[in-house]
Amino acid sequence: MAKDVLTGIHFLSGNYACVEGAIAAECRFYAGYPITPSNEIAERMSFRIAQVGGIYIQMEDELGSMAALVGAAWGGAKPMTATSGPGFSLMQENIGLAAMTESPCVVVNVQRGGPSTGLPTLVGQADVMQARWGSHGDYEIIAISPSSAQECFDFAIKAFNLAERWRVPVIVLMDEVVGHMWERVVIPPKEKIELISRKRPTIPPEEFLPFKAGKDLVPEMPVAGEGYRVHVTGLTHDEKGYPALNDKAQNKLVTRLVNKIRKNAPKIIEIEEIYTEDAEVILVSFGISARICRYILEQARKEGLKVGLLRLITIWPFPEERVRELAKQVKAFIVVENNLGQIVFEVERAVQGQCKAVLVPHAGGHIHNPQEVWKAIKKSLK
User: Are 52 and 190 in contact (CB under 8 A)?
Assistant: First the structure.
């Protein structure tokens, strides 16, 4: 059997690094359907997961892929799939099922230009709002965004840890450039990789309620077939898991599903700040667009301009409290995203009129020209 952690220094694409991170996180079930530009994830996973005793299934479509993940999670696996825009749209119904049944799983979306078939081989970052609001009803998920091949490895592990800790679907919002870019990736020894596993039942089966939550609002999760009575349904359910189709049960269940993320947001949210302590203008970005911002940031600082960077590692939940704090000191947030405006509205909402929220958009197909960002900085500082 091959190694599950390929410790050492490697030259990998973001897509390949994501697979190695998932394997290192003990992902042993993958169900997916091929779609550009995420295909390399499925291709590499097809033989890597088999090498470590896992299961790979090419499903008939993306709907079935997400359904398989829900079932695998209740079978005790750490499951994952990967897709891109049109496939991500098809997964939304069962992402909602995973949220309702609190089935931990990881969905990697290597974003491309859309809508519809759009630009299958070219970059985009326009699935941000769909990642948060794509399914129906009230629910919360977690979405994180890597900016390098190294982070594709690291964030795959992070995604599984978040999914297991909070029992939610976690979306890894990659993009085509990050997925296809080859870079140096350092994989640490297995013993230095911290993994989190879901809480397991600690009381006898006859006393256990599968959807009764603790103080952190996250229930313990049994494995089907180990003696615990398990009833899993997408219907509104009580703590036994049985359907309870009334407003009282709905309010109790859905409020908890939402609050387990909202009330624990400070423990979940992760951002990177550079030069924000004295900034008059702060760039806000994520994924490949944040790397362009980092380049411009250093050039601006060399010219004595007080520019900072707020990089969104966690996109959802959105770090609105930190944005609101920084809004007190800056003239503007400049939001650089490879779409025609999505995160900019979250920034605008968070600042509550304390400063401007300026969008530097790009419809996709290519990354930003740094000069576009530079012009926005100069204009905002005036």
Answer: no
Same domain, yes or no: 100 and 13: yes
The CA-based angle 162-164-169, given to 5 degrees, is 70
Last residue of a domain, one of 133, 158, 192: 192
Residue 245: left (phi > 0), alpha (psi -120 to 50), or beta?
beta
Domain range for 61? 8-192
Beta bridge partners of 361: 337
Q: What is the full DSSP assignment across 184-222?
A: EEEE--GGG----------S-GGG--TT-B-TTS-B---
- Over residues 25-50, the mean pLDDT reads 98
Which of 139, 162, 192 is the endpoint of a domain? 192
- Judgement on whether residues 135 and 280 belong to the same structural domain of the protein: no
pLDDT tens per residue across span 81-131: 999 999 999 999 999 999 999 999 999 999 999 999 999 999 999 999 999
Tell me the pLDDT band of 1, cut-offs 50, 70 and 90. Answer: low
> Which tokens in the block code for residue 303?
């010219």
**What average pLDDT does the segment 338-360 reach?**
97
Judge contact between 341 and 355, C-beta under 8 A: no
Q: Is residue 314 part of a domain?
A: yes
Q: What is the pTM (predicted TM-score) of this model?
A: 0.97
- ∠ Cα 65 313 91 (to 5°): 15
Closest listed residue to residue 285, CA positions, set 263, 305, 307, 304: 307
